[in-house]
Structure prediction request, 431 residues.
Amino acid sequence: MEKFNPFKMAQQQFDAVAEKLGLDGGTRALLRVPEREMHFTIPVRMDDGTVKVFQGFRVQHNTSRGPGKGGIRFHPEETVDTVRALATWMTWKCAVVDIPLGGSKGGAICDPREMSMLEQERLCRGWIRKVYDIIGPEMDVPAPDVMTTGQHMLWMMDEYETIARAKKPGVITGKMLGAGGSLGRTEATGYGVIYTVREAFKDFGMQIQNATASIQGAGNVAQYACELFTEIGGKVVAMSCWDNNEKKPYTYSCDDGIDPKYIISNSPDRITDKFGTIDPQKAADLGWKKEDGDAWLSKDVTVLLPSAKENEIRIDNVNDIASTVKIIASGANGPITPEADEVIKKRNIFLIPDFLANAGGVTCSYFEQVQNNMNYYWPKEEVLQKLDQKMSSAYRAVADLSKEKGVYMRDAAYMIAIERVALACKLRGLV
Ligand code: GLU
Prediction:
């Protein structure tokens, strides 16, 4: 089998919609590839005195609608094509929720689980020293993503400000509270997914009360999706989790519903370790069943929430999805391949595509920047209310277009996003 290339997938999705929209050749050529990318090395002095050289990237896909925006991933399997794909999806994500930002992404090939905090700090500071010239509040604004946290963001902000000799909290978002962070940012991506799911339930005249969901992943997005889905009356009956001791995922299931307090990382009742691995003994004590890593996909539930990584629902496992599933909302970026999409489309499962469903994080990052610029911070209720409003109206626009034109939800989301970005390029006289 050909090795999965997420950037090819992002281009394939773009090409199909560009064709539908009848986009001119110049616009297509401009939007198929990133505007700019930087590849660099980061030498880091390790605690044992040796120097390790890490590979870093920052890719800016399109900045016609505003400064680039997008997270930084720390992952041992990071590749430049993954970063390119994610930067491209950030452009569409910001456009579909109509925030005045472009699309970027960054990363470093490393495994923070194997590094001390001091080593991670040096890596973060080194990353900033390399990208200093191409990022900034008015140019490109990073944020957390896979295996990066608010702490990493603050080290990065501090390094940037040290070089700039000025306070620039808007250079990076997803910061911790007390040093420029926004209330609600931690919850934002997971909550955003569920705001869109709630709207879909309304559309179908379905009750959330006792509706069931299965989640892939147990990271930040999954944790808060689980919390809000439970809060509004649903039950998360299965959740998959990476086991850092065994280096493979497991699914934990509980017919009565997984209580989010056991998995939320800052909860005093959590049964996860510092890597987010669920303690199998504690899970058994709670009556949770431990199953294979991919068992989450075949559960008899109404909602599936793939919230781990890209390339998880593919042609070889898409048919494992149970006939009970009515809605799939992607907390992760790129979890469904185009071939699997075709099957989901045929089976009439309602898809809330990734760059719409998981846009809550970047939307709240935008609010964080706005608050940084004003140097005035909103209460949590206000942040979440604004987030709900943005997510719900973006969902509405996509769902309405999908219905009106009879197109798949992903295509409708792409149509809205691409048209907005193409318009900005045209108005600037680029194409
Ligand atoms: N990493 C998140 C995403 O993929 C958030 C990006 C941001 O806040 O800029 O949407």
About this structure: The longest helix spans residues 380-405. The first strand starts at residue 36 and ends at 45.
